[in-house]
Amino acid sequence: MLATDYPLADIIWTMVVFFAWVMWIYLLIVVFADLFGRHDVSGWGKAGWTVFVLLLPFIGVLCYVGFDGKGMAERKANQMAQSQAQFDTYVRDVAGSGGAASEIANAKQLLDSGAITQIEFDDLKSRALAHA
User: Fold this and answer.
1) Buried (b) or exposed (e) across 43-64, using 16+ Cβ within 10 A?
2) How confident is the model at residue 47 (pLDDT cuts 50, 70, 90)?
3) Cα separation of 25 and 59, whole Å?
4) Which band of pLDDT confidence, cut at 50, 70 and 90, is reported for residue 69?
5) Which residues 6+ apart lie within 8 Å of 27 measured at CB?
6) C-alpha pair distances (Å), 103 with each of 9, 98, 132
7) For residue 117, which phi and psi values (nearest 5 degrees)?
8) Sequence spans of domains, the chain
9) What is the Cα–Cα distance from 22 to 26, expressed in whole angstroms?
10) Quick one: residue 99, left, alpha or beta (phi over 0 = left, psi -120 to 50 = alpha)?
11) C-alpha to C-alpha distance for 52 and 59, rounded to whole angstroms
12) Which of 18-32, 42-56, 65-79, 91-105 has the lowest mean pLDDT?
């Protein structure tokens, strides 16, 4: 009984409209995140874009993306590159040198071979532990 009141074409149309609405909300969030993350636009410029986007939502979002879509992509790519560089630096710092344990092991080898004295070993060990 219920299926006859709401045909398949109406169901498909409702799904398309809902999907378009979700896409627009996502695009609105992306535009606001980009706008308020920018450092090259003044506060009045941000306020102007915000009012424009809120008063004329579809036209405002499409104008922002049209006027500054390339800049949005460049800023996002730069942000991702900076995040990747920070992560790479962190990984290199944590895992690269082996840390204090590696320095102490090298000092122990030098002590065992007779290249350094026990006092020098203790000094190297205390410096390695201080940097850890």
Assistant:
1) eeeeeebeeebeeeeeebbbeb
2) very high
3) 14
4) confident
5) 61, 65
6) 72, 8, 10
7) -90, 170
8) 1-72, 84-132
9) 6
10) left
11) 8
12) 91-105
How far, CA to CA in Å, does 122 sit from each of 63, 109, 111, 115? 67, 13, 10, 14
Where does the pLDDT of residue 93 fall: very low under 50, low under 70, confident under 90, or very high at 90 and above?
Answer: confident
Q: What are phi and psi of 38, to 5 degrees?
A: -80, 145
Structural tokens at position 81 = 């590159």
For residue 63, what are its two tokens?
């104008």
Asked whether the beta carbons of 80 and 72 are under 8 A apart, the reply is no
Q: What average pLDDT score do residues 106-132 get?
A: 87
Determine the average pLDDT of the residues in 3-27.
Answer: 89
pLDDT at 98 over 90: no
